[in-house]
Design brief:
heterodimer; A: two-stranded antiparallel sheet; 69% helix; B: Helicase, Ruva Protein, domain 3; 2 domains; 9 helices; 24% strand
């Protein structure tokens, strides 16, 4: 038998005015899951500050500072562009902007997915010491990735400025039957497209973060597969090539289309390059947004309160 | 109106990476929560059957041995752990001060650390900017505030952390032990600020092994033992049964006067 609690003195705080206990634990409801996300969003000042701090901190004491992000993206894009334009026999004038835009967007996607799996594990100290909505850590991560993206966008701007003459008119990529309309005001579509990407990044980090906190094998799995997916996604090559390889390019195209990251990439990249846009990419991304958020909210409902136990 | 209510709450930790066999030996130990291993995953039962009801004006001290569940209880009351069984309701802005180092970044300056720490404790940027001068004056760090935190000594870090913590306006203040590594003159100053802070806050829960601090800041107490509340009541009664002696009998008259406890059991000899 357990010894009873000894009460020496009836405090005014004791049983008398005490409200009734709720019939059951109320932590597993959609209302709490949604409230977590809403409160996280309201803490903008906190995660906004922390996201900036993460970037500034990474380059503290370096002379060039966050410009390093831009420089490393610039060299990578240039090197990859030169290499693959030779390998695939592509014209550098249109291929370098293509690789740069693709790589800049890919970096954002991959940053959100890989860091998303670590988001709660990496913030163990904060989660155990401060009562904050768990979505704060996710929003901090996505905000940090948005800032990285903004730094990398400089490279894109420079490359497009250099090859503006080639992109400003209807053009074809080498080996691609599609004629692209060239840069126009349609470039503005990249803004809502990127916003949609960020919205998706939040559910990805929430869902993968919760799963990875419980099952620690998930982050290494994701880390090792993501490089494979990089080569499966049309970034250093373009889908036009698939038609050229054989007469029956259809099944190859199907495999490319089955890769969800392709659609996420394409809705942002196509307007950035004045490419022919296809609405089915938007439809796929829209579907993933709804499905993903539903799954993430379900995970939040069931396991949001468990995260602090698992980290 | 701030309040904390906890009904029949338990906190069980699943330990995923432990071998259950070796834990059987541990289960015989006295320190820490009871370790269950009925399921596939061993579980540490850190708290059971906690019933607490706190409201505005409560000043509660937490006492108990190491591993009795004091820190876990504080986290339950902060809402960091939601109970695995039972339920809890916390109304009010919680400012937990468990570890003075959390949220402190050694690479950034003292000023920036003040800002971040404040944001973590639920303040906004404008409120913190108003407090920076006050904190700078209190900590006596002067020009050091614009230096990176890694150049600070341990004592200076504690000063900074205490300066921030004592400048906020919490509704529910949860303090864990470990505020003590500062020099005596500074502690005297911090004591006053701590008193003001406690006065400003609606609810205080303070886990400490220091009788002196407990007597100064609290008026009731909870005694935790093996994850249960062994006793809950007036500070003096709980401390007496926890320590096996009356903690008031060795206090100096000035101290008793300061904490408003004039009732002295027998003539005492001061220090």
């Amino acid at each position: 038998m357990e010894p009873p609690v000894v009460s020496f003195l009836v405090q005014p705080t004791s049983t008398v005015e005490r409200p009734e206990a709720p019939p059951e634990a109320n932590s597993r409801t959609f209302a709490r899951a949604i409230a977590d996300v809403r409160e996280g969003w309201q803490n903008r000042e906190l995660w906004g500050h922390l996201g900036w701090q993460d970037i500034k901190q990474r380059y503290r004491r370096s002379v060039i500072g966050p410009l390093w992000i831009t420089i490393s993206m610039g060299t990578t894009a240039l090197a990859l562009g030169l290499l693959y334009s030779q390998l695939f026999n592509q014209e550098i004038n249109t291929f370098l902007p293509y690789i740069t835009a693709g790589f800049v967007v890919w970096n954002f996607l991959v940053g959100c997915v890989t860091e998303g799996t670590d988001v709660f594990i990496a913030n163990e100290g904060l989660i155990k010491h401060l009562p904050a909505p768990i979505s704060v850590h996710v929003l901090r991560l996505v905000w940090r990735q948005v800032l990285f993206f903004a730094h990398n966008l400089v490279v894109y701007a420079v490359v497009v400025a250099i090859f503006f003459g080639d992109l400003n008119q209807p053009y074809q990529m080498q080996d691609d039957p599609v004629t692209h309309p060239g840069l126009s005001w349609a470039i503005l579509l990249a803004i809502p497209a990127f916003a949609l990407l960020a919205v998706n990044a939040v559910w990805v980090a929430l869902l993968f973060g919760i799963i990875s906190t419980r099952f620690r094998d998930i982050p290494p799995v994701i880390h090792s597969f993501i490089n494979l997916i990089f080569f499966m996604t049309p970034i250093v090559w373009h889908t036009g090539i698939l038609h050229k390889v054989g007469a029956d390019g259809d099944w190859r195209m199907l495999i490319a289309e089955l890769n969800p990251l392709y659609h996420f990439l394409e809705i942002v990249r196509a307007p950035m390059l004045g490419h022919q846009q296809s609405w089915h990419h938007w439809a796929v991304v829209g579907g993933f947004t709804v499905l993903g958020w539903a799954l993430a909210l379900l995970a939040m409902r069931n396991y949001r309160a468990r995260v602090s136990y698992w980290v | 109106m701030v309040s904390i209510d906890v009904w029949n709450a338990s906190v069980d930790f699943p330990i995923f990476d432990a071998k259950s066999r070796s834990l059987k030996k541990l289960a015989l130990g006295k320190v820490g929560g009871k370790i269950g291993s009925e399921g596939r995953v061993p579980i540490i039962e850190a708290l059971h059957d906690i019933n607490v009801s706190l409201k505005d004006g409560d000043r509660v001290g937490l006492v108990g041995h190491n591993g009795a569940g004091k820190s876990t209880l504080l986290r339950l009351l902060a809402g960091i752990y939601e109970p695995t069984r039972g339920s809890s309701r916390i109304v009010g802005k919680v400012a937990p001060v468990f570890d003075l180092g959390v949220g402190m970044d050694p690479e950034i300056s003292g000023y920036e650390n003040i800002m971040i720490r404040g944001l973590f404790l639920g303040m906004n940027r404008r409120e913190m900017e108003k407090r920076v001068d006050d904190i700078a004056e209190f900590t006596e760090l002067g020009d050091y505030l614009s230096m990176p935190l890694r150049t600070y000594s341990t004592g200076m870090r504690v000063r900074l952390a205490l300066g921030v913590v004592t400048s906020i306006d919490p509704e529910i203040l949860l303090l864990d032990e470990g505020i003590g590594a500062v020099d005596a003159a500074f502690l005297e100053k911090a004591r006053n600020r701590l008193h003001d802070l406690v006065k400003r806050s609606g609810i205080l829960v303070f886990a400490s092994h220091s009788d002196e601090f407990l007597l100064e800041l609290c008026d009731s107490a909870i005694w935790m033992d093996e994850g249960r509340m062994k006793a809950h009541g007036g500070l003096r009664e709980v401390l007496t049964s926890y320590k096996g002696r009356d903690p008031f009998e060795n206090l100096s008259p000035e101290m008793l006067e300061r904490i408003g406890q004039s009732k002295v059991l027998s003539g005492n000899g001061g220090e």
